[in-house]
Amino acid sequence: MAARAQVGIFGGTGFYDFLEDFQEIKVETPYGPPSDKIALGTWAGKQVAFLPRHGRDHSLPPHRVNYRANVWAMKELGVTHIIGPCAAGSLHPDLKPGDLVVCDQFVDRTTGRADTFYDGPITTHIGAADPYCPKLRQIAIDKAGEVGFTIHPHGTVVVIQGPRFSTRAESRWFSSNGWHVINMTQYPECILARELEICYVNLSLITDYDVGLEGHPDIRPVNHEEVTRVFGASIGPLKKLVKLIIAAIPPERTCECSRSLAGARIE
Question: Which residues are catalytic?
Fold first, then answer.
């Protein structure tokens, strides 16, 4: 397939109308169908591909998303940069609902997800010391202040299986390890992008305090209604930020993401 997009976006709740003028296409992959049709449009002179991570009617819970098909479809379209906004819970009182965390690390606590394109016969070991693109992260950090976000330029996201939320004991454990936010979709999405040498940045919008925080009895546990309310209130600035990031992506790639397969294969 000829390249038809430079930038890909995996959107969650509230992002389904990101592109105003677009065409929808189906993309077939060796891993089955992506979450939905892909919308192709233009922003700031760049071709953009948008895919609703959970499907347009939000029919796919986090543990049922076909992450390999989604990322492969972006690669098929020629995408070199992916922006992954998502809702996330806070594990620390200084990360407040409405804040934005540009994560630089993840911890995988999922189970049974297909999380690699390389099942053999060529053994491939992708480096994951710094799983998010440093260039895209810096662009996001620089632009976040322009739309009024309280920005946290570093953070570790712990990714849980879902669809249930954490128990109090689990949340307490996550916080005690120094992890910052919690989410259900960041893994394996970001590492699959790295396997295909695509730059990836995560934008974690804080919507809640997980199940509450120890020593803070006034902070209530998470519920879906509150997540939806906070995300809805922040979706406008978040879309604006994504568009600013797209406009600022340079034409040439100088990061290591584009060379992630170099030395990774045992042949």
Answer: 208, 210
Separation between Cα atoms, residue 117 and residue 108, nearest integer Å:
17
Q: Tell me if the pTM is above 0.90.
A: yes
Could you give the C-alpha distances from 34 to 29, 64, 93, 132, 169, in angstroms and in order?
8, 11, 36, 22, 35
State the Cα–Cα distance between residues 11 and 123, nearest whole angstrom: 32
Q: Domain ranges in the chain?
A: 7-266
Contacts of 62 by beta carbon, 8 Å cutoff, 6+ apart = 54, 161, 162, 163, 184, 185
Answer yes or no: CATH 3.40.50.1580 is held by domain 7-266.
yes
pLDDT tens digits along 127-154: 999 999 999 999 999 999 899 899 999 9
